[in-house]
């Protein structure tokens, strides 16, 4: 398992639009991907789990990837999280 921390940089937090894009990307990968923050962990392929994290702008999350192509998929998800902040 590989992990990396990244800050939420979306002005309105990690809400419906960024969550939807994140889930779409996670579901396209064969790895198991989780997000963790403030003692809670969520499956990145589950909308309700991600929304339950209630992530706000500035929160630091840990993206963890296990399974096929961990390194590549971790980088994809970290870059996506950073890109979502620019929208």
SS-derived structural category: alpha+beta
The number of distinct structural domains comes to 1
Number of helices: 3
Q: Could you state the CATH homologous superfamily?
A: HPr-like
CATH-defined topology? Histidine-containing Protein, Chain: A
CATH class value: Alpha Beta
Q: How can the largest sheet be summarized? A: 4 strands, antiparallel
Order of helices and strands: EHEEHEH
β-sheet strand percentage: 25-35%
Distance between the termini: 29 Å
Estimate the helix proportion, in percent.
25-40%
Q: How many β-strand runs?
A: 4
**Which architecture name does CATH use?**
2-Layer Sandwich
Shape call: globular
Low-confidence stretches: none
Q: Strands of the largest sheet, in order across it?
A: 1-4-2-3
Query: What is the arithmetic mean of pLDDT?
Result: 93
The rounded Rg comes to 11 Å
Domain HPr: 1-87
Protein name: Phosphocarrier protein HPr
Keywords: Sugar transport, Transport
Topology (elements, then pairings):
Layout: E1 2-7, H1 16-27, E2 32-37, E3 40-43, H2 47-52, E4 60-66, H3 70-84
Antiparallel strand pairs: 1-4, 2-3, 2-4
Helix pairs in contact: 1-3
Structure write-up:
The mean pLDDT is 93. This protein has a single domain (2-84), classed as HPr-like (Histidine-containing Protein, Chain: A), CATH 3.30.1340. A hairpin with a 2-residue loop joins strand 2 and strand 3 (40-43). Strands 1-4-2-3 form a four-stranded antiparallel beta sheet. It has three helices and four strands. The chain is an alpha+beta fold. It has helices spanning 16-27, 47-52, 70-84, and strands at residues 2-7, 32-37, 40-43, 60-66. Residues 1-87 form the HPr domain.
């Amino acid at each position: 398992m590989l992990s990396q921390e990244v800050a939420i940089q979306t002005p309105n937090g990690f809400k419906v639009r960024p969550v939807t894009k994140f889930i779409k990307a996670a579901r396209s990968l064969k790895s198991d991907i989780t997000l963790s923050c403030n003692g809670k962990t969520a499956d990145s392929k589950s909308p309700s789990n991600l929304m339950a994290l209630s992530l706000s702008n500035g929160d630091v999350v840990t993206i963890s990837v296990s399974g096929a192509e961990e390194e590549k998929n971790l980088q994809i998800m970290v870059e996506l999280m950073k890109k979502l902040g620019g929208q």
